[in-house]
Here is the input.
Amino acid sequence: MANIVQRIRDYLQTPKGRENMEKAKTMARDPENQQRLRRLMDQVRGHRTPR
Here is the structure.
């Protein structure tokens, strides 16, 4: 049985996997999504965020 990393690599080689990768890259470039991710990471790290 392939390990999880190999299964992910295999998926990313499929047309659907490549499509999802491009969609994720587009979403990652959005400043609003970047701000959401920063807030989430601060919560995970235990930092308090102003509202």
The mean pLDDT is 91. Residues 38 and 50 are 12 Å apart (CA to CA).
